[in-house]
Amino acid sequence: MDWLLARGEIIREVVALHLFPTPDLPDEYRRTQRALEQLHREFSGDHYQGRPCRLRLVPVRHGDVRLADIRSEADADVVWCAVYQLLSDLKAQGRPLHLCIAGGRHIMGLLTLSAAMLLCGHQDRVWHMYTPTHFLERARDGAVMHAQAGDGVRLIQVPFVPWGSYFPALHALMRSPAEVIAAQTAQLEASEHARCRSVFEQLTGRQREVLRLLATGCTPQDVAERLHIIMATVNIHKTVILDHCRIAWSLPENTYLSYHFIHDHFARFFEREHKNASP
């Protein structure tokens, strides 16, 4: 928070999504209670360091029950859905987001990143908070609430692909992480198939033969031997194919592509074509 403010970011609200241990886990329960109380004090009167800023604490719930820990895939689904709903609500309000995925259970960070890839855009940021070991020891249990410039604490931006920006229809399909993966895979495969199809349709019959063999894992030498042509001819056909690929995948003209690109992208294409053609 201090690091972002020092960079000139304007932050009006901080949302802390957290698990909530039950009293039958006394140590975890007391530690969580103490941490939440300390956070409240930092945002007294909906201000932080003299700036208007609200703190909102959001415990992960399964129905009316607060989730104490992530012990199963069902618990992970509950957390993912909570993160997805929270981010969805915030983005519906048009807010740019800074997501910090450090702290708490590591799996919560992974689940948050998964949801962010669907809901966040290019204007949003995902951060990992790097905290040196010596400062962690000094700040344990809230003994130090604010790091100084020389303490080495900093945010590291996490690169991510905002798939939801490219495939907006994904938003309406989501109910669980499994559905996310299935929907993303279907969208990506459809897009990949369309690119492969556009390249295939622009090739001559001989170029299609070369493409098909390279897609099955043949080397250029293998192709030359199977088609009874010289390597120079194979390379000419390969160059034409890869030129079409650069256009289809919107790659810069000077991007180096080898015949491995053809196998990586066209193997599934021909598998699907063969499957669809089978009676």
Description of the structure:
- The protein is mostly helical and 279 residues long.
- The chain folds into two domains: 2-168, Rossmann fold, CATH 3.40.50; 176-277, Rossmann fold (3-Layer(aba) Sandwich).
- It is 53% helix and 12% strand.
- The chain contains eleven helices and nine strands.
- The strands form four sheets. Strands 7-8-9 form a three-stranded mixed β-sheet, with helices on one face. A two-stranded parallel ribbon has the order 1-4.
- It is elongated and about 80 Å long.
- The protein starts with a helix and ends with a helix.
- The mean pLDDT is 85.
Oligomer: single chain
The structural domain count equals 2
Based on the coordinates given, report the CATH architecture of the largest domain: 3-Layer(aba) Sandwich
Number of strands: 9
Notable features of this structure?
279 residues, mainly alpha, Rossmann fold, two-stranded parallel ribbon, 9 strands, elongated
Concise structural overview:
It contains 11 helices and 9 strands. With 279 residues, the chain is mostly helical.
Summarize the helices and strands and which ones pair or pack:
Layout: H1 2-6, E1 13-18, H2 26-42, E2 47-48, E3 51-52, E4 54-59, E5 61-62, E6 65-66, H3 73-92, E7 98-100, H4 106-119, E8 125-130, H5 133-139, E9 154-157, H6 163-166, H7 177-201, H8 205-215, H9 220-227, H10 231-248, H11 259-277
Parallel strand pairs: 1-4, 7-8
Antiparallel strand pairs: 2-3, 5-6, 8-9
Helix pairs in contact: 3-4, 7-10, 7-11, 8-9, 8-10, 8-11, 9-10
